[in-house]
Amino acid sequence: MSTPNAEAGGLAEPPAHSHNIALFFHGFFKVVAIVWYWICTIVSNSFVVNFVVCIVLLALDFWTTKNISGRLLVGLRWWNEANDTGSAWRFETLPEGVRQVLPREKRLFWMAMMGAAGHWILACVIAVFGLSSYIIVAILGLLFSGSNLYGYFKCSREAQADLQGYINSTSSTLMQGAITQKLNTAVGRA
Description:
- By secondary structure, the chain is mainly alpha-helical.
- The chain is extended, with a radius of gyration of 23 Å.
- The chain has helices spanning 4-7, 20-43, 47-74, 103-128, 135-155, 157-189; strands at 76-83, 86-93.
- It contains 6 helices and 2 strands.
- It has one domain (17-155).
- The chain crosses the membrane at residues 45-63, 108-128, 134-153.
């Protein structure tokens, strides 16, 4: 049996298949680390146990996101190389046609990444105001999730274009609002 593309003389594009297991663990480790962060004092009174469990969960999330889910779900990969002259970040995007990214997986990947980073920012703010004694865990959670978010953002030309479009539209809207306000003020004086 042949595909329509093969009959037309073109190469048949490989069908995209879902990576449900990678998607599950991409969210699972994030959720478990966040939930543990908030309930750990209920489960155990030992700071050391709570700290170690939280850091292990954050490390599992970081490793899974960096090495597996980013590559499978959105076709992006980043790493840091260290040598005698220093270190350098490396970013890689699979070329178009090599891997077809499913829109649902891409959307869930980015939502989980931004949600986790947002949570850890909020956790840091709450910890600064003294409502949590685990500020070091919140800072490490922000560092882990923030570095993954930064790395994948730098890999994704599409995410950079989306952000640039958002900045342009927002600045354009702000400029239009400022000009309109100035004109209304000038007309009001006349």
